Amino acid sequence: AAQGAGAPATEARLESAEADVRDLRKELAELRSSRLTEASDMQRAFTELRARVHEERSKGAEEMARVGHHLQTLDDDMDGIRTRLKEHSPEALEQSEAALREQIAALDVQSSKAREQARAEFESNLERLDAALRKQLEKSEAALGERVGALEAPEGAPAVPDEALAGIREQIAALASRVD
């Protein structure tokens, strides 16, 4: 009977232990779920933090590049100012003036040579043109002489009026004056 009375007590303890195990399993599942959520939240926070760090690094790199470019520009400006100061020093101005004087002298020599060459070419062209015009005049005079001869009447032919002969002589004189 004692055994019989102990059985319900054991059974009760067993049920109580099973209920405790179920409760522990439930608590464990909740704890796991809570830990997983917490781990997921931590992972998300870590990812966001890493993205922010990367973004800040990029911004920092851009800012450093901008500052570096600005410093380089300032350096270039300073070099330009130094160069301009050197260019405007009395020694530099004297050197510039001397160089300009040399260039002007060289240009004067070149200009004189070019003028002489142009004058020689002009005179040569003028002489050739004059010779060509004289030849043309000689040909024209010869042709006009032939025409005048043809117009002067041989004996027995009717006489050419003096006005026609005077006009031809005027043309010859006009051509001669153009050549001279």
List keywords for this structure.
mainly alpha; 3 helices; Chromosome segregation protein SMC; about 180 residues; rod-shaped
Secondary-structure map:
Layout: H1 2-87, H2 90-151, H3 162-179
Total helices: the number is: 3
Summed over residues and divided by their number, the pLDDT gives a mean of 80
Shape: rod-shaped
Q: Helix and strand succession? A: HHH
Region (Disordered): 1-20, 54-75
Biased composition (Low complexity): 1-11
Biased composition (Basic and acidic residues): 54-66
Protein name: Chromosome segregation protein SMC
What can you see in these coordinates?
This protein is mostly helical. The chain is built from 3 helices and no strands. Helix 2 runs antiparallel to helix 3. The chain starts with a helix and ends with a helix.
What is shown here, in short?
With about 180 residues, this protein is mostly helical. Helix content is about 90%, strand content about 0%.
